[in-house]
Give the backbone structure.
Amino acid sequence: MSATSSIYIADNDAKTRDLISAFLTYQGHNVVFPERNAPIFDTVNKYDVGIVIADAAHLRSIAPDFQERAAAINPLLALIVYGDTAAVGVKLTACANAFTLPKPLNLDELESLVLRAREFQNMKKLDSFVGDNSQHQLLSASMIGTSAPMQELFSLITKVAASNATVLIQGESGTGKELAARAIHQLSSRNGKNFIPVNCAAIPDSLLESELFGHVKGSFTGAYSNRAGRFEMADKGTLFLDEIGDMKATLQVKLLRVLQNREFEPVGASKSQKVDVRIVAATNKNLEELVASRDFREDLYYRLSVIPITVPPLRVRREDIPLLIHTFLVRFNSDKRHALKGFSQESLNILCRYDWPGNVRELENLVERLVILKGSGFITPDDLPEKYLSGMQSMQIQVPVLPKTSMQAAGLADWDQLPEGGICINSAVDEFENRLIMQALQRTGGNKKEAALLLNLKRTTLIEKLKKKNLSTVEE
């Protein structure tokens, strides 16, 4: 079951079914409309259904043992039943992903249960991925993701950790390169020793050599005593050199010697010092381009990239975004002592479409900010900062080409005169209504809620009109 699994509504009352469908579709959920009279279990399999919303009486008539049979097909399938289950004889086994609602339906409560079901499925999906594998447990504790790119990364980290080879981790800022380095250390035979990180871009060039290799007393002004460097501190463990692409040429030569001979000289020392350290380097720059421009030593590059690893950006593993949001939400709710319930499906859809130039770090910061500012309830698109909505605002609305009517042919633009030959009033009114709807959607950038307000309609009424008139918005 994917993170965007569908919702199926089982009810023989077409008005109720269409109302729920329109509401959930407006909220951003994917509702399936199978063939008429299609068996419910065929629909569940064919359309990747993750949530079934059913009228109790209708469910009793078509599948009295639905919950038991559904669990055999998909243990994560959620069931939301509305109506008097006891009166009609529907028996529901108490479980974390089965819910009941009374009639008449409260649509906001219904969507709240849908979001709870999604949260439960996200947690279980992550749990099933981790399983009993201690290596995956360690990885998933720090690097959240069940997408194919992340599973490939986890597999590669597990293999690399078993060796002592030097590793070069590449990836954009905020993807989690240090987390990958820590995972390599924790899964290696060196996990009982130090993991020492150094950000080569954050330390001034004049101090970086002493920071890495240490110094002896009197080697420069201010060196009042001997000081151990990061290499010595990482002996028998792992040294993580972050932003290695920013290291200056003079230090690159000295680092190359450590990689070749496993020895270094503290600043001001007269003899070398042996060291047993594994080096894991990381950069968000293209080292091959830096080599070509002679800003990075070619021999050092090949020494560092014995095993290259690339951490994928968030935009190529969008299916992990709901899992990441859930993880951050739980953590920040606990840290800040807030009770934010979750994100509406529409807001999740918006965040899943965003390109995330800051990657996981940007997403984490956003969730923390929203937890602090909102505090409770659900995050809706109105709560999201403007930049996350900019893609929606740039959406182009395509006005359908309408056939020319007698009104248009007569030039009746202002509705102030009647053509001599008469007019089909139903066609003219229908056409006028179509144009008003599409103009409202154009003005609001495709936001159906705002368009409905402009037209003084209920949002569900607008959605029903769009469907009935076969008017559609398309993203160009």
In short: The first strand starts at residue 6 and ends at 10. The domain at 406-468 is CATH 1.10.10.60 (Arc Repressor Mutant, subunit A). Residues 393-416 have pLDDT under 50 and may be disordered. The first helix runs from residue 14 to 26.
